[in-house]
Amino acid sequence: MNGEAEVKYLDGDFRVVRPGAFVRCAVTGVPIPLEELKYWSVDLQEAYATPEAVLQRHRERLASSSKP
């Protein structure tokens, strides 16, 4: 399997919708091999490469929700 996978992110798990070798981090754009995928958002349906990327996305959402 090569190329980017399409994934449905669930609570505590994920389901591969279209086979592939990786998904992309929604914040950094770096490829994340499926076997290394640990961080994602069920609400936003996006993957993150690192805990720092999760925190960055969280801060972005807080900033955008606090604007009038």
Q: What's the gyration radius in Å? A: 13 Å
In the sheet with the most strands, the strands line up as 1-2
Q: Please provide the count of β strands.
A: 6
Judging from the principal axes of the Cα atoms, what is the shape? elongated
Give the biggest sheet: 2 strands, antiparallel
| Strand percentage | 25-35%
Task: Count up the helices.
Answer: 1
Structural domains: how many: 1
Would you list the SSEs in sequence order as H and E?
A: EEEEEEH
- Poorly predicted tracts of residues: none
| Ends apart, CA distance between termini | 46 Å
What helical percentage do the residues reach? 10-25%
What structural class is derived from the secondary structure elements? Answer: alpha+beta
Task: Describe the protein in words.
The protein has 68 residues and is an alpha+beta fold. Helix content is 22%, strand content 34%. The chain has one helix and six strands; from the N terminus they run ββββββα. The protein has a two-stranded antiparallel ribbon. The longest helix is centred in the C-terminal third of the chain and has 15 residues, at 51-65. It is elongated and about 45 Å long.
